Structures are given as C-alpha cells and as structure tokens.
Batch of 2 targets.
Target 1
Amino acid sequence: MPAETDAPAQPSGVRPVTLPELFLAFLRLGATAFGGPAIVAYIRDLAVNRRGWLDDKSFRSGVALCQSIPGATAMQTAAYVGLRARGVLGGLATYIGFGLPAFLLMLLFSVLYQRSHDLPMVLSLFRGLRAIVIALVANAAVTFGWSTLRKAREVVVAGLAAAALAFQANPILVIVAAGLAGVLLLPAGADPGGDRNAHAPRRGWVPGLLLVLLAAVAVGALFLTDRRLFELAATMLRIDLFAFGGGFASLPIMQHEVVNARQWLDARAFIDGVALGQVTPGPLVITATFVGYHVRALPGAVVGTISVFTPSFVLLVLTLPAFDRLQASPLFRKAVRGALLAFIGLLVSVAVRFGIAVAWTLPLALLGLAAFTALRLKVDMLWVVLVGGILSVLLG
C-alpha cells in the first residue's frame, strides 16, 4: 500500500507502528501539549523511549530540521515522527492527531467569545489577558534575543527589522530582506555535519510535490467558489510560509495581515485571540482558528486552520530528503540566521504595538509587570495566564 512504499527504511531495532496507533498516541499527547516548544521533550519520550518508533539519532536530526524551516516546531516534530515511522500518511496521522485538540478547544473559545465578549466579567478578564499577552511577547523577544544576538551586526539586523515594522513595512518583506542580509553580512557558523542523506525517505520529492499539487487544487477551488475563504486561505498560507522561529514568529505577520492590511479584527480582538491561544494546548499559531471563525464562522475556522498548518507540513516533506545537504550549505545557514534575527526585531515591534492598543491603568500595568517577571523566573506560561485571568476578574 502507498503508506508502506513511501515510508523510509526503519533503522534496526525500531518497532513498526500502525496509522491508528500513531494518530491516537499523538491525539492524547496533543490534548496536554501546553508549554510550546518544551513539548518536544515529551514527543521524544513518547516516540523514542516509550514506543521505540525512532532511534535517538534520527529524532535529533528531525528536531534540527524542524527548527530550520518555517512553522511551529512542536507540530512539525510530531509530523516528523509520523513521516519516519510510516511515510506521508504517518506524518498526516501524527500532525492531525497532535493539532486536533487545540483546534476543537479554540473553536469552542471562538464561539463563546463572539457571544459573550461584551459581558462585564468577560471584559475584565480580557483586559487583564491583554497585558499578559504583551508580557508573553516581550519575554519571547528577550529570550530569543539573549540566546541569539552575539555580535553588533546581528543587533543591527534585528533593530532594522523592528524599525521597518514600526514604519508599516510588510513583515514578509522584512524577513526576506533579513535573510538576504544574513547571506551578505553574517558568518555561516559551523557545519553540523552528519550522515548525508541518512534519513532520506525513498521516492525523494514525489510525496511533497503531490501535496503541493493537492494544495494548489484546493486553493483554486476556493478561488472559484468563495473568494472570501480564498483570501483567508491565501493569507494563512503566507503567514505560515514565513514563520521562521516557531509559533511566536507567526504573530508579527498575522497581526499585519489580519489587523492592518485586511481589518478582519481590531487590535484588541486580535490580542484576545492570542490570549486564548495561550490557554489551548498546541502551538500559538492556532490563533488562526479564532481569526477564521470571525471571518466566516465554522467554514472560516476550518479553512484558516488547515491553511496555516499546510505549508509547514509540505516543507517538512519536501526538505527531508535533502536536509543534510541543506545543513552543509553556508548560504542556507546564513539565510536562516538572518530570518531568525528579523523575528527578534518583529517581536519587539509587536510588543510595542500591542502595548499601544491597551488602555493602561496602574493595576493593569502591575499585572503585566508581574506576568513578565514570572515568565523570566521560568514559571510555566499556562499558570501565568490562568492566575492572571483570575486576578483580572477580581480586579474588575
């Protein structure tokens, strides 16, 4: 059957697995996948230690691949496990299983938000959550900046990216420009080496090209039948395609596209959607479900969600056969580093824009400062959001 012929050869000692087993295992994991990229450690424990579907060397290679291409790292790592275990169908099983709980919960939140967001208690809740979201974005900027910025030229690239967005530049163009700047200005870094093509699946590019064709047909069908859904799909595809650096990387692009360019949501409603994304399991980019629901109810939520996750999966399938060669390319490593530097600058700019959109009071400012401090002290973001939400309601 196709799932077997597309599947990569299993290393000796790795246990075979069925598609339902993959789906159910990652459905259960996805229901508790709080903590963003930290969930990668739990995926490793499941796939390598407990189930024996991959060996540790293959898993680490997959994580390196997922960190080098756009998209949410945890989602892509889940897909990588399925790809290595059972080919493209296995990757779809783990990808869908891992993301389904977040989609269903965010869909429920979107319905409740639309029906109750003007109630006094709900207004108090989201006033506080907006301050906490700003703390989350600011903490992400500091964390990525502290671990990434090492030289003056890197600070300059990140600073120019932040300044460009402040002057209403398109974040996608900023990321492309930063990638080019990385090629011209930044050192390549050490070649990570590795066994070239050791993890390449049979049939190479064929599965990825088929997925591209299917996606093109689906988008074309939307263009012919529903222009509003087509615009939503095209927007979300673009967002994920340039989201270097994980789920937070999608925020500057999504905010520009959804709030500034198309005005589907105002700034405060978008921040509320980001806040809801923090209390659902799975990646922050699930905010696309919230946006899609507000654009076209249930069809919009489904189209927005599928579209925002499709490029990540397709890129993973396409790059897996050639990843070791890509890692060996100095130009590739420099371009990816430039894009990541842009991501830091864009996060700073988004934190500032979110801050401007909030009607600050002294209690709200103290709540935001307390949330930022808790995050710097490594308190789990889920607890920060939940406790902050309770305090928001109490403070009124």
Note: The CA atoms of residues 99 and 250 lie 16 Å apart.
Target 2
Amino acid sequence: MKSHIIFDDTTQKQNALNWRSLRNWITKTVSDEGYIIGDLSFVFCDDAYLHKINLEFLEHDTLTDIVTFDYSSENIVSGEIYISAERVEENANQFSQDFDMEIHRIIIHGVLHLLGYKDKTPKDKLLMTNKEDYYLSLPPISE
C-alpha cells in the first residue's frame, strides 16, 4: 500500500519546515506504534478557518490549535489534521517555546490522536504528553 502524507500550508508560515523530514518522522512514529500510514493530510490554516471547522463539524464555539478527523481502519492510519498557525504561535509564546518546536508538538499530537491516544482525563493527558516528548526527542530523519 502506498502511503500519502500531504501538507497544505494556506498561511505560508511553515515554509521553513522540512516536509521530507516531517514525513519520515511521522511515518516512523506510526510504525513504532505498530501501525502503517494510509492517507494523512495536514492543513495549516488561520484561526478563522479552524474556528469555522470547529463550529461546523464539532459544534464547538472555541478557538483551538488543532482539529483531527480520524479515517483510520484496523492498522492503517488515515485522517485530516487541521492546525491553526496563529494558535501555535500564541502557544509557543505562552510556553516560551520556539515556533518550530511547538508546531512539531502539535503535529505529533494530532498523529497520536489518530493512533488512539486520548487527552480528556489527567491520566490520558499525561500518557499523551509523555509520548509527545518521546517522539520530539528523536533525532531528525532525513531519508
């Protein structure tokens, strides 16, 4: 099965990201968790765009940094991940992180949701944060 990981940067703020390295990192993460990549789409957008998605599909009238739609089946991970670059930038400032580190955290957070990790309870949130920290600690994968 041929996997597809697509990045759509509607904000033009992620131009400095290494898309190939990100694809390899995401693929390794999914593989390390015992799954394979199907079709993944990452859309980097602004607050207004993600707020509209949040209202329309989830009926949440709030700003958020990420919305994940899971289309996975069995061991094949597929989905759409929408990320607000504005929220990521604000989070980076709030947590004294650089933008690249925060965008990587949000990307892997969405992937972990597709892998079945939750963050609604304190116990689940701790496990997810530990997984994020682990995958963020891995060296970049160029090939």
Note: The two ends are 19 Å apart (CA to CA).
